[in-house]
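Researcher: Let's do a round of design. I'm pasting the structure tokens now; please hold your answer until I've finished.
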């Protein structure tokens, strides 16, 4: 066997480099943050570069650069015959962080190789900066408002709590009269569906005044035996067409329905959130139950929010109240033939929630435009004729908790700007006697009202 002689190369010791970035806890918008990059090496420093990584890592934005070749403050270590461990720290300070600063950051360090001065050894570390933002607004609304009051059918009622400006999504929950509500959670609606108005969840039977006597004799509704006929389903799968009843004028509007029971309501809760372009999240929570006007009127509901960027819960509250004592004004106060009369609801004797539905009717006849009723807070009568003198108008204000009516009478005076025609042979104006009769009738009505 012949031996082979191999050339001898002296051992080389390339410089080593380790880089690490200290992890950061979540920070709040407006705080000052310092990013710290620690690295250990026995080589000569070449450069330090900080990057902010965006678009899922596809883009790296350079935010800080340290070049040792052009630095006069950097300590030059020229002793290559002895391995020396040098520990460095590079820091980048963000004085007031914004939501846009959220994301990963990288620290890249380069040193000269110990064997060849032309080669650079690179190493890097990364850290994720989690920027939190507290919610900026919270509000409680009622879904499907304005909505009418129904005394003959149970109605589902939904409160919507909207929380904006937070990151991450906050924890939202409801309270009633200061006590947390235990609600059955519902799944999120499918994509594209609106979360403002959930589908009907509960249905109760009609009141016993609508039940045939043969069935009503078997027992109280909800207290005795169930109906032998088809019982409407209850729960999440219940679906039934709405019932429209013609309520006579003699029925007292504030009368509570007989289907109402004093049992504890069953609440259903749904929580959704959607990202916003500025990096925050809009959260919406809905609370749905079968409304009971007897126990829900004047009930205080609050929506509370917990968030890691808040030192204490944030809340908004509303009180469910039926309308009472509408205040109506009429302009002009002294209407003449041909004037445009506006009748407006200015407010109530109490704070009303949710928003009422206003319906105007003319007692015993149709409105001036021929319609049976008009919706809105204001009723406008264009160019009123003398025939409307003494007509009565009713305004019905209602929300899901109750309904109330108020009336006002229109008095129309003759317009002095309208010519009455030529005088007759006796020097009197045609229709003058008729005007005296209308004036006398008007005065009589005014005296009766006062």
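Researcher: That's everything. Go ahead.
Model: Designed sequence:
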């Amino acid at each position: 066997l012949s031996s082979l002689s191999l050339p001898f190369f002296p051992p080389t010791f390339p410089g080593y480099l380790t880089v690490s970035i200290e992890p950061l806890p979540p920070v709040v918008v407006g705080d000052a943050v310092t990013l710290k990059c620690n690295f250990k090496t026995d080589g000569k420093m070449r450069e330090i570069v900080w990057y902010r990584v965006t678009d899922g890592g596809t883009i790296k934005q350079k935010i800080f650069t340290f070049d040792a070749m052009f630095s006069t403050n950097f300590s030059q270590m020229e002793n290559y015959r002895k391995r020396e461990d040098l520990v460095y720290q590079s820091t980048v300070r963000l004085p007031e962080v914004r939501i846009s600063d959220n994301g990963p950051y990288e620290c890249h360090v380069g040193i000269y190789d110990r064997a060849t001065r032309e080669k650079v050894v690179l190493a890097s570390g990364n850290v994720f900066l989690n920027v939190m933002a507290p919610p900026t607004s919270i509000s409680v609304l009622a879904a499907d408002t304005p909505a009418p009051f129904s005394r003959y059918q149970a109605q589902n009622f939904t409160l919507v709590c909207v929380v904006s400006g937070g990151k991450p999504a906050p924890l939202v929950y409801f309270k009633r009269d200061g006590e947390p509500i235990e609600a059955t959670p519902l799944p999120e609606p499918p994509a594209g569906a609106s979360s403002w108005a959930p589908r009907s969840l509960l249905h109760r039977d009609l009141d016993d005044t609508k039940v045939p006597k043969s069935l009503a004799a078997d027992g109280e509704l909800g207290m005795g035996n169930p109906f032998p006929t088809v019982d409407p389903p209850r729960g999440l799968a219940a679906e039934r067409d709405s019932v429209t009843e013609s309520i006579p004028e003699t029925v007292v509007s504030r009368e509570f329905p007989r289907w109402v029971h004093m049992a504890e309501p069953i609440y259903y809760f749904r929580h959704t959130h959607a990202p916003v372009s500025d990096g925050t999240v809009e959260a919406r929570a809905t609370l749905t139950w079968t409304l009971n006007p007897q126990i829900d009127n004047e009930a205080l509901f609050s929506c509370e929010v917990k968030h890691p960027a808040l030192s204490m819960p944030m809340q908004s509250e509303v009180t469910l109240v039926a309308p009472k004592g509408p205040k109506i004004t009429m302009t002009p106060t002294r209407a003449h033939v041909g004037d445009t009369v506006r009748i407006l609801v200015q407010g109530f004797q109490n704070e009303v929630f949710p928003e009422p539905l206003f319906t105007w009717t003319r007692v015993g006849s149709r409105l001036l435009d021929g319609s049976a009723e008009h919706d809105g807070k204001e009723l406008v009568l264009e160019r009123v004729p003398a025939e409307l003198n003494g007509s009565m108008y009713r305004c019905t204000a209602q929300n899901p908790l109750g309904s109330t009516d108020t009336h006002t009478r229109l008095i129309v005076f003759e317009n002095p700007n309208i010519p009455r025609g030529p005088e007759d042979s006796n020097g009197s104006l045609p229709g003058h006697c008729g005007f005296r009769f209308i004036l006398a009738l008007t005065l009589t009505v005014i005296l009766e009202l006062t």
